[in-house]
Amino acid sequence: MKGFLKKAAHALLKQNGYALSPDRVRYWTDFPNGIKVIEIKNKFLKSGSNYSVNIELGVYWPDVEALVPGGGFYMVRPPPFACTLSLSLSYIVTNTSSWWTYNKETEKQVSNEIVHLLKAKGFSWLEKCENPNGLLNELTAVNSKERVIALRKLMAAGPGKEA
Fold it and tell me: Residue 80: exposed, middle, or buried by beta-carbon count in 10 A (0-12, 13-18, 19+)?
């Protein structure tokens, strides 16, 4: 969102240890097994004065990606689509991927809803995916077979050991 969401989301993410990327689109924070990323995507709708926004959340586990055929270490902080697992906030909340639509009159209301959902659902989903068992459950739910196999190999090897 042009104004209110950017300010509200930036304050919330900064408060929770996320840093803003140089391109000012993504936010990252590290965790022991990798990186958590949140991306705010905006687009102007051709229908006039309406806009849409989508919030993508992702977790990147370099050790899992190294075991995935064709995977490997991403040299810079990855965007959500390059993460081990990424989902939109709307999918996490409703099990349906969609964009929020807003205009000048509804921007503050939609922004408040998104910030509330990030606090209530988004952060807890990311925290769940920091844990190998939580990530395994989420990867299984979205049927990511190659990453499930890679994570199971990593888990069987034990902490600090290569699979």
Answer: buried
Instruction: Give the count of domains, the chain.
Output: 1
The boundaries of the domain holding residue 137 are: 4-157
> What pLDDT, on the 0 to 100 scale, is given for residue 2?
58
Which is more confidently placed, 67 or 47? 67
> Is there a domain that residue 126 lies in?
yes
130 belongs to a structural domain: yes
CB atoms within 10 A of CB 61: 24
143 domain residue, yes or no: yes
User: For 92-146, how does the pLDDT look when each residue is reduced to its tens digit (9 = 90+)?
Assistant: 999 999 999 998 899 999 999 999 999 999 999 999 999 999 999 999 999 999 9
CA distance 101 to 82: 26
Query: What is the model's pTM?
Result: 0.89
The answer to whether 118 and 9 are in contact (CB under 8 A) is yes
Query: Is 127:118 a contact under the CB 8 Å cutoff?
Result: no
**Inside any domain, residue 163:** no
Using alpha carbons, list the distances in angstroms from residue 81 to 40, 47, 56: 13, 28, 9
